[in-house]
Amino acid sequence: MTNPSDFSIKIFADGADLQTILAMAAKPWVRGFTTNPTLMRKAGISDYAAFAHSVLDAVSDRPVSFEVFADDLPTMEEQAREIGSWGPNVYVKVPVTNTRREFTGPILRRLSQAGVKLNVTALMTVGQVTAVRDNLADGTPAIVSVFAGRVADTGVDPVGVMRDCLDTLRNRPELELLWASPRELLNLVQAEAMGCHIITMTNDLLGKLGLLGKNLEDYSLETVEMFYRDAMAAGYRIAQPLPVPAAV
User: Fold this and answer.
1) What's the rounded Cα separation, in Å, for the pair 117 and 46?
2) Long-range contacts (CB closer than 8 Å, 24 or more residues apart) made by 43-50
3) How does DSSP classify residue 136?
4) Annotated catalytic residue 93
5) What is the pLDDT of residues 139-186, one digit of tens each?
6) Pairing of strands 198-201, 142-146
7) Domains with residue ranges and CATH for the chain
8) 149, 158 in Cβ contact below 8 A?
9) pTM over 0.85
10) pLDDT, tens digit, for every residue of 15-34?
């Protein structure tokens, strides 16, 4: 496949730059949007709610995920209910634990029972996916975000992990598995092949989509041309010119 529209997996744009979000919203193959406090801080956003509402004003027809940032379960639940009220297309990102390793299952259960659409985030193990599944109310749509890229960072092949996670959710059609933190375009192909429902892609990765199906010999030549251009632009030389003999 060489066209993003040909993929059955949903591609979600991951970022916090409003202008880029607006540009991605014009592309029909971008099926949703996600962000998080780290991305928002890097983008210089200081007013969380104002930014969120500006995004929702521009994107009303696709899922958009915003994350809670409290660290105690009661306040996390309060923030989730508030964020969830911002629009029918909002999914509320709730981490699988807080910083004290307290499982958020109890609030996931209450929120999903109340009809709040959740994006449970920062998962990395099949056991976590199983525990989250068992605490999400039947019938309420939810996304389960497994950070496959971070799994790969530890030297573990994420494909097997993601397959097992998908099997864990097999009998819950309202729950979608999301391949989070991809590191390369290959991850899109891998996620598609294994039947993952959603993948998030940063602007850098989205910019590489034009490479899908590219002829490798052409790509090889372009790489050689790049090295040559950069060497010439830098004015590199190996042999120094011999000094001119002094006149006798």
Assistant:
1) 25
2) 43/15, 43/16, 43/17, 45/16
3) S
4) yes
5) 999 999 999 999 999 999 999 999 999 999 999 999 999 999 999 999
6) unpaired
7) 4-212 (3.20.20.70)
8) yes
9) yes
10) 999 999 999 999 999 999 99
